[in-house]
Amino acid sequence: MLYGNESIAHYSKSNVSIWMMLAFQAGVLNIGGFMACHRFVSHVTGFATFFGYELSQTDSSHALGMLIVPLFFLIGAMISGFLVDIRLKLHKKPKYYLSFGIIFFLVLIVFLGGISGRLGVFGQPVNTYADYILLILLCLICGIQNGSITTVSKSIVRTTHLTGITTDLGIGLMRIFNSKKINENMDNEKKATYMRIGIILFFGLGSVVGGFVFHKVQYMGFLIPVITSGILFIGMFYYQFIAVKN
């Protein structure tokens, strides 16, 4: 579990549970952003593509927006770096609870802003400032989540997008298939392979569940990541403050 000065690079049940919950949450956030305003939010690649597309249109005013929004993914990663990575480098207690607390607070803003009608009309393409605020908030959330979990897992785990995980899975599978030739112990590689498959499946599960929920209740669907991020925040706070004292 996330506490003390430790990373979570080992494959304990509690760590794997955190990874899978975060992957599920990322899947829900990604499909929620896409269904709300036709943009994926958990990776920067899509925004680079949309930037090129918008730039080629007669009205290229949205191109700047597609360039600015992913900067908040970067800002999110920087926030997590300040709260977790730098403190680990300085051998100080990382502030996991703050990192996950900010995620919970931002998801709650998205949920409340959405159901109150302040974040644009659900399902409409990006047209207004409210749509951009939604994209900015979701990118910021994903940047903090991905940065935090990448740091504390020593870059083993990334939960907000699947490109790197799928690449690692392919490489890992070939190592396992050729274990006799390369003459290495494959125990950790097998554990990593199961973990990567799990993250892909849980991200997909989050997307599927989110797809059905957002289709039915629109912005109310963000209640799912409010609950998951709330559970993680409470868990981080408990293990960093209450469990340590006991």
Which helices and strands appear, and what pairs or packs with what?
Elements: H1 13-37, H2 45-55, H3 61-68, H4 71-89, H5 96-115, H6 129-152, H7 163-177, H8 179-182, H9 187-217, H10 223-245
Helix pairs in contact: 1-6, 1-9, 1-10, 2-3, 4-6, 5-6, 5-10, 7-9
Q: What report would you give on this structure?
A:
The chain is an all-alpha fold and 246 residues long. It has a single domain, classed as Growth Hormone, Chain: A (Up-down Bundle), CATH 1.20.1250. The protein is built from ten helices and no strands. The two termini are 16 Å apart.
Weakly predicted, low-confidence segments = 3-8
Beta percentage is: under 5%
Main sheet specs: none
Distance between the termini: 16 Å
- Rg calculated over all Cα atoms: 19 Å
Quick one: how many beta strands? 0
Q: Return the CATH class.
A: Mainly Alpha
Count, helices: 10
Helix proportion range: over 70%
The count of domains is 1
Brief summary:
With 246 residues, the chain is mainly alpha-helical. The protein contains ten helices and no strands.
Looking at this protein, list some descriptive labels.
single chain, 246 residues, mainly alpha, Growth Hormone, Chain: A, 10 helices, 73% helix, globular, disordered N terminus
